Amino acid sequence: MEFLPLLLVIFASVFQGSFGLGMKFMPPLKWEAWWLVHSVFALILVPTIWGLLVVPDLFTVLSNASLNTTLLAMTFGALWGVGGIMFGKSVPYIGMSLTYGIVMGVCAAAGSLIPFFGLDNFKGLASFPYIITGVIVMLIGVAITAYAGILKDRLQKVDNKDEKVNLKVGIIIAVLSGLLSAALAIGFDKGGEIGSLAISSGAIPRNSSLAIWVVVLWGGFIVNAGYAIFLLMKNKTWNSFSTPNAGKAYMWAIVAALLWFGALGVYGQGATLMGDLGAVVGWPILLGLSLIVGNFWAYLNKEWKDAKKPFNIMLFGLLVLIIAVVIIGYANGVS
Question: What is the mean pLDDT of residues 251-272?
Fold first, then answer.
């Protein structure tokens, strides 16, 4: 694999693993108010502004795309939005660590393998055994880190008391969340026509991905903003926007948006430069490395304090993830 595409995906994983820090600074805003602000910036403003800067005649490019491609990309974006909502619904049943582990594992596998299985004669590709092996190793690594998180929660006595009672329901929701969350990668893959039009308009190949994201995230915005507005109406929390001393919360909503789409934007550039297997190879690398970055921030925030055994298990899981990334990265260079 060429160094630049991999480097871009690595940078993207740093952003992806870091944007969640902003969610620690929601108060005094209500969740739905913070999330609506975050969604406007992350899914509409930042992608569109970046796209306008690097894709000549962006809106002409988008208007020239076939309706079928546009609707397909938006639909997958909307499915990703539903997956994110289901993530939140799963946490009360089985806890954050297990939910995150299941969703990350399923999302990484589905987001890589579904586009891969859509390639012509995928079984005959020289990269086939490496991609399958890499994804399996990554699932093992995610499972180990999730297990470490569960042990940590139990030691720190923060796990949900109803976890065992609702384990089956929570796992089902988490698996569905992972499958739907993978729609983001699939939507990017299905928007290839938009990227080609962007190149024809004068965009350099790696920047053509920005035009694709604009369309995919329209669908994601409809779901995320719609859900936030529904909660604002249901909970009658519109006055949360005028809460005193909420400046820091607003700032972090925007910073988190910049980090989140920064991850997607840079990832898209790297995946585009990887060629035909970009979406197949880049997606699991992005999620695997972002899990490592996320745990690094968790360590700095002392979330693993007084949990030495789970922490060591987590480190082993991260080592397995690194091995998976190496295998998958190697797959893209096999001809």
Answer: 90
